[in-house]
Amino acid sequence: MTSCNLCGSHHAHLLFANDADTMSPPEGIVQCANCGLVYDNLHVSNPTIIPQYENRKYDHLSQDWIDGRQAVFQCYRNLLTTFQKQNRILDVGAGHGFFLAMCQEMGWECHGIEPSNECRRFAADRFHIELGSHVLEDVKYKDGYFDVVTFFNVLDQLPDPTSALREASRILRPGGAVIIRCANARFHVPVKKTFLALSTISQKIRNFDQTVFHLYAFDKRTIARMLTEANFNNVTVFPGTLSWTASHDSPIGSLKKLLTPLIGVLTGSVYRLTLGNILLTPSLTVVATIPMPGKN
């Protein structure tokens, strides 16, 4: 079994077995028995996963999908301004470049990493932004080079998120920040269990399952620990703006358009009423900073 990326333990409880899995122990989504990190116990490395992203095709980008991406990124404008000093930002997993295009309009010197050949071409043609294709740890940026490093819906897809965060801490200046958007395990695990239980009544219920599991699924506690161990402090975790645009090539269904703002209001209300102690939102936004010299 794959060891936990956060604490190194080999002991984990199975949450969801892969379909038609006959392995012993079974492969699937597990939760570390020691630290609680949720992850896929099928070992994946960068050389294995990168070709999948390099050749991913996006035949058509629906306007709903584009609008959803841009709406999410707009929520980070004020956060970026707080840390703008050297004026350099790095977006890891930059996709088509929509976020960096917004940063470019704000006067940032934009850097990005994106394995998809098609996405890099799109960013260059549409926004005149040149994205790199190397793994973050292999680029070898200078120490303290950036004000901000972002991981939007990508940290949970990296084979070694701990290594990526350590590299981010190295290339950020003192007082610089990492900003992360990721799926919330505290939401997706119980919702997935509910759908699996209901699917015993009717398999059609699975069509409404919007839960997300990549290589990892973080919650407030596990992402905060991972950041702290990577030399970050002042970790803040709060609900992420929702944009349930699961398919890049089709419009959002009427049900999603209705449910997305409703769920956002409900989860946001729970978060505020519990003074930030209960995060039942599908997505998390995480902000953490590099300590200033002489400060803990």
Q: Could you describe the largest sheet, including whether it forms a barrel?
A: 6 strands, mixed
The helix content, as a percent range, equals 25-40%
* The level-1 CATH class of the domain at 46-184 and 219-252 and 282-289: Alpha Beta
CATH architecture of the domain at 46-184 and 219-252 and 282-289: 3-Layer(aba) Sandwich
Kindly state the mean pLDDT as a whole number?
87
Supply the helix-strand structural class.
alpha/beta
Any idea what the CATH superfamily of the domain at 46-184 and 219-252 and 282-289 is called?
A: Vaccinia Virus protein VP39
Q: Order the strands across the largest sheet as they lie in space.
A: 5-4-6-7-10-9
Task: List the total number of helices.
Answer: 10
Task: Please tell me how large the radius of gyration is.
Answer: 19 Å
What is the CA–CA distance across the termini? 36 Å
Uncertain runs with pLDDT below 50, 5 residues or more?
none
For this structure, the quaternary state is: single chain
